[in-house]
């Protein structure tokens, strides 16, 4: 290997290429460390650095006592009722969230358009880092009209969000509101510096960007959302029955 990059990165690049070319397919177990070390002419420490890098990227997963396997992407169904926690749990993952920001901000044009309010009107911004099994996979920003939820940013309200761990359950328990997806627009873009740090990505990696509009059971606009998701870990499925 004559590339100027560190040896473990070169090995990670080659293994990544094998996965993308489906030499190793989802669910396949990688050969033993001894075999891979011999194949790449490196010691086990260097090989483990390469595997750790691919595990961090979500391409590989380790099972204690069994070995290392090619990881499946997390499937996230987009329908009328989008339930992040339930989707991860159904696939055997543990969903966790870290609250990044809970503040009042003036509605920017995109937010105002999504909520059918005037630009500059006060909205609550709830921003959270979503994780699967401790690995960061998404950053979600939800904008809620304070005209409908004037106490949304109080300590009591945020404590309910912390307890439920779910936007849908929070709105239902706190306000008796059903959280229904009206529209989702998905695009791809390069990750921005702040999100790259949170999602543990390099700046040249693409992410999935999902803009959403949510209504309550009466059709009232209650949330404009922007979710940035790791494109290497998430697979969006549009399900008209969900």
UniProtKB/TrEMBL annotation:
Keywords: DNA-binding, Transcription, Transcription regulation. The keyword DNA-binding applies. Residues 5-73 form the HTH gntR-type domain. GO terms for molecular function: DNA binding; DNA-binding transcription factor activity. InterPro entries: Bact_HTH_transcr_reg (IPR050679), Chorismate_lyase_/UTRA_dom_sf (IPR028978), CP_lyase_PhnF (IPR012702), Tscrpt_reg_HTH_GntR (IPR000524), UTRA (IPR011663), WH-like_DNA-bd_sf (IPR036388), WH_DNA-bd_sf (IPR036390). GO terms for biological process: negative regulation of DNA-templated transcription. This is Phosphonate metabolism transcriptional regulator PhnF. It comes from Leptolyngbya foveolarum.
